[in-house]
Amino acid sequence: MIHSSISLYKREQLKVPYKANWSSNNPLVIVEGDGWIYPTKEALRPLGIAQITATEIDGVNQTIFEVTIVPWSANRLRLDVNKFYTKQYIMTKQGNTIYSSVKYSGNELFTGDLDNLVKVSDLPVGCTQYYAPMLVTPNGYFIHSNSSIWYSANLSSWTKVFDNLRGSALRHMFDYAYDAISGNVYVFVGEYSTVDTTQCRVIKGIIPNSGEQVWETSLEFYSRSQFNAEPTLSPSCRHIHAVIVEKSSNTLWVGTGDVGNEIQIMRSIDFGLTWETVGKGTQDWRTLSIWFTEDYVYWNMDADTPQGIWRLPKANLQADKELVARLSNGTMWYHMPIKDHLGEDAILMAQSAEGQFRDENGRVFYIKELTDKTVEIEEVLLVYREEGVPFDGFIQIEPILQDDDGYVYFNGRSSYPNQNTRRYRLTLRGNQKLFRFVDPVKYVSQ
Prior knowledge:
mainly beta, Methylamine Dehydrogenase, Chain H, 2 domains, 4-stranded mixed β-sheet, globular
């Protein structure tokens, strides 16, 4: 079965390599001769899913397409897979040098072409787990391993610099700021715990270009249990979702979850010495990804309520937040800045199937702020599980890095093929125009 999305109010042609009779099992998706289909109305699952069948005239071959009606633009810009890697886990890059490991085992760091790996060093135990982010900073290398943070000056050996973290680090919970005046690097790591009695922290490491490192607590939250016993305690959270530095200003942003008062986006403009709350209390502020343009801060929604992308003007964080796009299906996960097919700044963002408003597929979205400050949104990839494999709400691929040749690398999570690392190139289909987001159900051509 071939899976795809079909944009509301758009005609799209499905193709098979033979002359066929076409049929649809859903009256909301019309199919015409030669495989042209179009949806007539938006609907959530199961009404918004159609099976389109192409049966060869002589009856020998048959192809089934499963299409999902979506109210956003899809398939005009796409990610074309270039290469699959079955063992490697992408860690990070330095310049155009990609660092990788063998997933879940081996405890070794490699560089070079992913088909011809060159060992760099042994890694501390646990550094090849799925969530083992690595930082390349002006003052050395850092890696998160289970409850510890490790440092290397030259990648040849590793030293533990912080221990007894109270939880794991998600991909967007390990970042750094560089102060050009002092020469210090500030490393920040959040704690993700599912134990309600745990007080999660933002830990800060102060790393001079020479001399002793200092590691300390920058921000500590009251636990869920403490807040339930005394609701005046603030700030509180169940766990931290995001710790992200805006490099142009060295502003540190933190996102937490999961419900009610546990949800907040906070920021610090002094390397984690003081904090202010930007927004809190509703699922609109629950996020795994925060990113920036010259004028705006954006965030997505790690929520099982209808998901969307929001923004605020950086010059006025007290303004009403603006809904950029409503992209309801599953929880939104990680993002990555890229240079797109035009060489311009854009974002790729992964969405899982957790929530299943429309179907059981993960997706990747292309997001671009245009010169007039409107935002272009495009579904560029649909990620589905292997046939016969039980449903997993976390199915997705996570964008990790882009190399100097424009290829984008993803690590797979419960995806098809299962958990493979893969390389894509972003391409525009034919001469089709991209569509600009106007509201949750309408698009206009640029």
